[in-house]
Amino acid sequence: MLTKLTLTEARAGLAARKFSARDLAKAHLDAIDRLNPKLNAYITVVPEQDVLTAADAADARYAAGTARPMEGLPVGVKDLFCTKGIKTTAASKILANFIPPYESTVTARLLDAGSLFVGKTNLDEFAMGSANITSAYGAVLNPWQRKGDEVTALVPGGSSGGSAAAVAAGLALAATGTDTGGSIRQPAAFCGIVGLKPTYGRCSRWGTIAYASSLDQAGPMTRTVADAGLMLEAMAGFDEKDSTCSNRPVPAFAQAVGKSIKGLRVGIPAEYRAPGLSPEISAMWEQGIAWLRDAGCEIVDVSLPHTKYGLATYYIIAPAECSSNLARYDGIRFGERKDAATLDGIYEATRAAGFGEEVRSRILMGTYVLSAGYYDAYYLKAQKVRTLIKRDFVEAFEKVDVLLTPTAPSAAFAQGENMADPVQMYLNDIFTVPASMAGVPALSVPVGLDSKGLPLGLQIIGRHFDEETVLSVGGALEAAAGFAHTPTLHAEAGA
Ligand code: GLN
């Protein structure tokens, strides 16, 4: 079962020559052939010949003893990272024909570490969404099904839904994601995998298509916490091309997993006990608290009083930044163009035809809150509240080392649910947005199944640039939970 391995196992198997990088690549391409028509996890699959040529080069490095940390490991890349010579769409019609002439910093580093890219994964258009239903290339199907219900199609979460579905279903050993308000963590929880949003500034944003620049952060989506550490090591680090990228050294993240967490203080924020939180999620959270207590942690009640303003301020700041970032798609320099008699006419026709409904609505919201008469009332106010949210975290981390919360307020929901009312959809981000606003690292770990047989995740939030403690605690939670379930559709993949 080459498609069910962890990165760490696959790396060891390749090094021991138990199988070749070509075998591993072929198993993944076969699984993609079989399952992608159903899941729609990839927008673009790298041509077989290119993947196999790269796999042969990886095999040569193993033979020569020069294999790098991710040598020959099949990875999916969210279609928001520019990949040189490989179409990059952001799941938008406006970039349907865009083939970047350059490689994003994060993907360049993954290639330098030896990763084998098998394809570009589907997402919500320009990463705006929580269900992967706004893609111009069709919705992604969650490989998980409700117990005894093979009819209801579930969403994989979003916006990195294609990456989450691909990793869960065996169409990649790991994938990149991006997280602006929860887009790595929520789909990871919905698909029963691990997702890590690093500290803002840990990974370079250069060459990643921008949504909301003060929030966007790339991170790994993997099957285990140790794999997330391994992959983050390959992705992170200073980049002079991104002025917000930190120059702190990149620690050996994978080594943080397995370290004793005895004596660590784990904060439980009162405000996350939201009214209406499902009893099953509450119970899972209690279970998580008990596991960490058993591992020797001290459990401390804390308060993050401005949590209640998180969503409202996020949905001002993110659209404001997106309205500015997406102004560049005017049909002149790249992407699709719709012709018209005047220059303004070209802009209007191109943007009206190229952007989907959710993207247009966010551009309108963002333009509104930035407009002269409303800037102080909305945007400036939201920025001030953001500072208060960040301060809540900084103060909490004077008392505790990490925070433990649920990742999402529900398990994966059905395609068609939560669709009529955008606010209902935005509520999905209630537990993930505050860490994004504060810029702190946060990890989602799958810890169990609900009564319908769907995965649930818990979130560990840490101090700025302290991914190591987050990974240590995540590793302990993973070990206690022993989550070893795979979705129905993964079993079908064979190989
Ligand atoms: N669901 C949130 C949004 O739609 C978060 C998306 C993200 O993190 N990219 O903005």
UniProtKB/TrEMBL annotation:
GO molecular function list: ATP binding; glutaminyl-tRNA synthase (glutamine-hydrolyzing) activity; transferase activity
Keywords for this protein: ATP-binding, Ligase, Nucleotide-binding, Protein biosynthesis, Transferase
Domain Amidase intervals: 24-471
Family: Belongs to the amidase family. GatA subfamily.
Main enzyme class: ligase
Quaternary structure annotation from Swiss-Prot or TrEMBL: Heterotrimer of A, B and C subunits.
Name the record gives this protein: Glutamyl-tRNA(Gln) amidotransferase subunit A
GO terms classed as biological process: translation
Pfam families (UniProt xref): Amidase
Keyword DNA damage appears in the UniProt entry: no
Residue positions of the active site: 78 (charge relay system), 159 (charge relay system), 183 (acyl-ester intermediate)
EC number: 6.3.5.7
UniProt source species: Acetobacter orientalis
Catalytic activity: L-glutamyl-tRNA(Gln) + L-glutamine + ATP + H2O = L-glutaminyl-tRNA(Gln) + L-glutamate + ADP + phosphate + H(+)
GO cellular component, one term: glutamyl-tRNA(Gln) amidotransferase complex
Role according to the record: Allows the formation of correctly charged Gln-tRNA(Gln) through the transamidation of misacylated Glu-tRNA(Gln) in organisms which lack glutaminyl-tRNA synthetase. The reaction takes place in the presence of glutamine and ATP through an activated gamma-phospho-Glu-tRNA(Gln).
